[in-house]
Automatic annotation (TrEMBL):
CC annotations in GO: plasma membrane
CDD domains assigned to the protein according to its UniProt record, in alphabetical order: STKc_IRAK (cd14066)
Binding residues annotated for ATP, in chain numbering: K111
Span of domain Protein kinase: 76-361
Record's protein name: Probable receptor kinase At5g47070
Ranges in a coiled coil: none
């Protein structure tokens, strides 16, 4: 698992705690269903900050107590643990409605490691961003818990439960069924739509800062949702071209100019998106220590197989067993290359990425015989559309296999 890293120590620690929202431990509202507003119709001249927007909407989040979440997770039973990241553990849990009446809800509960202020800062960011943002391709935050007790500090987050794990699990965990080509494209399109909303669909620009395959999680129908907003930042406003921060993120996904200068823009997110596009094509992680040295860094390795060359198909994930549209695959590789432009200004906008991914899905669904590589030889008896149907069926089989 690829963990987050901090390259430089954050120097503004004492201010950070003050910038926390006034999150009270009292239950603010029992109404979890009230719609969250996603795009303001307010004055364009003075966009509100996420913190201001959060103040208006915080009552949409439920405030949980520590005993409630202990009960939900059978005292954080390790058998209910479903994941572990750089900042804490994730448990599957069951919560009751606030008034105790009615059906229980299955949720995912993230318990942050709370040594130091870093965890607290990330928890605050996650609550504020996910308390404000609302899009089908972002994970829904249902509530939170903050408790500073004598026996320790608790920072927890309660999300909708996503039964199909992460894109990382599906691409790299050999015990999982192979994700078919069109499913991969649909997943990455969903993730792109989530990012396009962050970059272009909110009153303030939101820089996600941690785009990677483990942060793309999947619902029961394999719809992709972005998770983990602990590192998200508001984009630059006014005449400023970038935000300056201590570079944080995950090795193998962070844009080079951001790592070198700490200058953050939405174009840093586009780089990470390009990396994940290559992970989807190749079925290889961005950094893979178990491979020969030449192949350890995915971006260096794929350079030897340009999208326009005859050798291109050699990078394709062997687990796809040649069941993919070549036209679409080349289109995706070219898109990845444009996302991975050294010059951030030459990288596409997220809305352009979304359009190209839609075209790639169309290429794959049209599938003429020259598009789909035959598993055995060119003398295959299956027509391209037959193969396409096979691919779609394989997708359904996989969904069933994973859900059962
Ligand atoms: N809402 C959710 N529903 C179901 N499972 C989830 C949910 N959120 C996270 N998970 C699971 O928990 C795993 C760990 O998530 P987490 O974000 O803590 O770590 P990570 O993304 O692997 O690493 P990092 O901490 O660097 O982001 C995820 O990969 C996913 O499988
Ligand atoms: Mg994560």
């Amino acid at each position: 698992m690829m963990k987050c890293f901090t390259i430089f120590k954050d120097k503004s620690k004492s201010r950070e705690r003050k910038s926390a929202p006034e999150l009270s431990n009292q239950r603010k509202s029992d109404n979890l269903d009230s719609r969250r507003v996603s795009k303001s119709t307010g004055s364009a001249s003075s966009p509100r900050s996420i913190k201001e927007m959060y103040k208006e909407r915080e009552q949409n989040l439920r405030v949980f107590s520590v005993p409630e979440l202990r009960e939900a997770t059978k005292n954080f039973n390790r058998l209910l643990k479903i994941g572990e990241g750089g900042f804490g553990s994730v448990y599957k849990g069951t919560i009751m409605p606030p008034n105790g009446q009615g059906d229980s809800t299955v949720v995912a509960i993230k318990k942050l490691n709370t040594q130091g202020l870093q965890g607290h800062k990330q928890w605050v960011a996650e609550v504020q961003f996910l308390g404000v943002l609302d899009h089908p391709n972002l994970v829904k935050l249902l509530g939170y818990c903050a408790w500073d007790g004598e026996r320790g500090i608790y920072r927890l987050l309660v999300y909708e439960y996503m039964p199909n794990k992460s894109l990382e699990d599906h691409l790299f965990n050999r015990s999982m069924p192979t994700v078919p080509w069109t499913t991969r494209l649909r997943i990455i399109l969903g993730a792109a739509q989530g990012m396009a909303y962050l970059h272009e669909g909110v009153e303030v620009q939101v820089i996600y800062r941690d785009f990677k395959s483990s942060n793309v999680i999947l619902d029961k129908d394999f719809n992709a949702k972005l998770s983990d907003f602990g590192l998200a930042r508001e984009g630059p406003t006014g005449d400023r071209s970038h935000v300056s921060t201590a570079p944080v993120g995950t090795r193998g996904y962070a844009a080079p100019e951001y790592v070198e200068t700490g200058h953050l823009t939405i174009k840093s997110d586009i780089w990470g998106f390009g990396v994940v596009l290559y992970e989807i094509l190749t079925g290889r992680r961005t950094l893979e220590r178990n491979l020969p040295v030449m192949e350890q860094k995915l971006l260096d390795w794929v350079k030897h197989f340009p999208a326009d060359s005859k050798r291109f198909y050699m990078i394709m994930d062997p687990r796809l067993q040649n069941q993919y549209s070549q036209t679409a695959a080349r289109r995706i590789a070219k898109l990845a290359d444009s996302c991975l432009n050294k010059n951030p200004k030459d990288r596409p906008a997220m809305s352009e990425v979304v359009e190209i991914l839609k075209q790639a899905i169309q290429d794959s669904e049209e599938g003429t015989s020259s598009h789909v590589r035959s598993p055995q030889s060119s003398r295959t008896h299956l027509s391209a559309s037959d193969k396409q149907i096979k691919v779609i069926n394989a997708g359904r089989d996989m969904a069933r296999a994973v859900q059962s």
